[in-house]
Amino acid sequence: MNPMEMIGGGSPVSTDPGKVPRLGVIPRYAKDESEMKWFEVLGFNIIHAINAWEEDDGDTVVMVAPNILSVEHTLERMDLIHASVEKVRINLKTGMVSRHPLSTRNLDFGVINPGFVGVKNRYVYCGVGDPMPKISGVVKLDVSLAEVDRRECIVGSRMFGPGCFGGEPFFVAREPDNPNADEDDGYIITYVHDENTGESRFLAMDAKTPTLEIVATVKLPRRVPYGFHGLFVRESDINKM
């Protein structure tokens, strides 16, 4: 990245076509960077990783992340960007890397139930780029479907309507302290701005339903700019600060 390029009207992000993208894997309890292992993954460009976990007794690392196609246009011509969510398997012993897309849609800003960070999970919720950073809706992906026949993994969807665009979604568990709760038992929350009326709303959607049913809508006093990242903090966590 070179922020100085912005002064002349250029993009702060550039690519070197002569280099191959790499993924770095470092042991959880590594003493220093010398234990990092690098794996070349041709054509794989990520900005927002969604989740990763270990399989095969630690010999395999699986990662889910959007692959930014036409990455050279990032932050300059976002209308030319397409983010394809992919599942990547890295064999730490052989160095082999395999990957396949989970959906053909333009998806980014993926989130999961925070209780499943770093462990194998099933559901991912992504914003639909129209183009990014304008998000015209949210879809629910079932990652497990890719283990069967590598078909389209979208199992739920909520579009915001003509002229309505949202920000990054975020998952809020209904019972975060219940270890027996279903992974998708919770809410997807986000901000949505209606460019037709100038109104902005806070939405809460049922993460379990195939339509991501809206369960609450709150009109906001002012607009939240597109592209903001999502975060939810429980009152109990704030009280600990």
UniProtKB/TrEMBL annotation:
The keyword Hydrolase appears for this protein: no
An example Gene Ontology CC term for this record: chloroplast stroma
InterPro entries with a match to the protein in the record: Carotenoid_Oase (IPR004294)
Cofactor, free-text remark: Binds 1 Fe(2+) ion per subunit.
Example GO biological process: carotene catabolic process
Known cofactor(s): Fe(2+)
Pfam families linked: RPE65
Positions bound to Fe cation: 48, 229
Gene Ontology molecular function, alphabetical: carotenoid dioxygenase activity; metal ion binding
Keywords (A to Z) from UniProt: Dioxygenase, Iron, Metal-binding, Oxidoreductase
Family the entry assigns: Belongs to the carotenoid oxygenase family.
Protein's name in the database: Carotenoid cleavage dioxygenase 4
Species, as recorded: Lactuca virosa
